[in-house]
Amino acid sequence: MKYILVTGGVISGIGKGIIASSIGTILKSCGLRVTAIKIDPYINIDAGTFSPYEHGEVFVLNDGGEVDLDLGNYERFLDINLYKDNNITTGKIYQHVINKERHGDYLGKTVQVVPHITDAVQEWVMNQAKVPVDDDRREPQICLGGTIGDIEGMPFVEAFRQFQFKAKRENFCNIHVSLVPQPNATGEQKTKPTQNSVRALRGLGLSPDLIVCRSAKPIEMAVKEKISMFCHVEPEQVIFIHDVSSTYRVPILLEEQGIIKYFKQRLNLPINDQPSDLLLKWKKMACRYERLLKVCSIALVGKYTKLSDCYASVFKALEHSALAINYKLDLMYIDSTELEHSTEVQNSVKYHQAWHKLCKADGILVPGGFGIRGTEGKLQAISWARTKKKPFLGVCLGMQLAVVEFARNCLNWKDANSTEFDPNTKNPVVIDMPEHNLGDMGGTMRLGKRRTVFKTENSVLRKLYGDEMFVEERHRHRYEVNPELTHCFEEKGLKFVGHDTEGNRMEIIELENHPYFVGVQFHPEFSSRPMKPSPPYLGLLLAATGTLNAYLQRGCKLSP
Q1: Class of domain 2-287
Q2: Could you give the strand order of the β-sheet that contains 87-89, starting from the edge strand earlier in sequence?
Q3: Above 90 in pLDDT, residue 330?
Q4: Per-domain residue ranges of the chain
Q5: Bigger pLDDT: 340 or 558?
């Protein structure tokens, strides 16, 4: 097993996840089996209880793990399926060690950060690195891991300082991602932050084998030589990644700077110097992305619109689908509260700007979420999509609100609501699931990959999924459509075309006599891949560009 540790310096959010994923993609293109581990220093057991404004979206895995969004990058780039134990947190490690102490595994010794916590980290990494993540179920050959260098991550840094000797030099490599800023005042690229960052890492006992420098513009050769000299590495060990038009370009930039040859020598890898067809496909995809001329605009109506990372997987799923049909995605984020009447009273300019965006969009998407804030604005957007025949996709809460909107405006149940927002509503069209635990919040939802069975052949989504009898997608919800009321909706044209294996839980809705009005209880964005777009999102883009019927008539084959 070869281990590649990716550390970050100068600032957080510098792109460790994308760079680690890109390196994994390059190594996979050389025929190696790659897995990935993300290390987060927070004390939470997992990411499930975070607000999206803390660390971005919560990514859900097949086994129900609620994890950091970087694992989503790993899965999309490497086309693998990870597990909850591929995300290590301080909380998980301490809980594991404390449970062992309570069990008496330490034979009465004083339990300390060193060696017990650091040993637990190393043991966890070694065990998880062996777990197959590809469809062929073979053990990985490369394990990529990411951690950070601030004070709360010190036990992890110390664990890897020890681990580099346990794994041996030929099996362990450290990549340090740093920032090369370019102040507007001088226009000069500054190397001092990178020098200080590398010096601090060395002081902790880790010496970077590769220094990946992030910058706004391409870095000059003189800067590369300066970093090489002051950071005690060869010039070819300094890699530059400037801001690019798409993340698909990052693996290509790395490969062009000789990273395959370096890894082959440094880790003694049994590979050729040239990448395989996989990286050539990435190159073609990156070039195609940059040449796109036709634009499709989608309005994303949500409540976490101030930070794009809150909907990272949704954006990627839309981007994959747009690229598949040769369109450039114009994603317009609309804060759902700005569509509400209260905003019209308080700030009419914001209100009219939000509605202008919604009206000019080719399609409308209402993603998942929690809490009552902004729900009336989402209901307004759904009503607009339904009445104006605008292509619409509702995901999780988006589907539930589509049911609420239909009940209020088509069934004339004016107080119809979800018990999440109004526990005393007379028409509870969305209700708590029986297994909903009102005590603990963490890990108590219906999580992970579940089967959805189509109950009719006359379904747009079934055709988009290749006319399969069932699909398996990832879930994350506490509430569900009330199964006792579904017949009222079906009589008026809102069809529940998919349900769970028992037939009690509604999973997919489709509206009759509408170009594309679809809601799904699951989160299809989590399984979207750059070369395998998610069918519900692909359907939205096809409908928004007016090409859905032609696509279905071709037997769900994309035009060349």
Answers
A1: alpha beta
A2: 87-89, 34-40, 142-146, 2-8, 172-179, 210-215, 238-242
A3: yes
A4: 2-287, 292-554
A5: 340
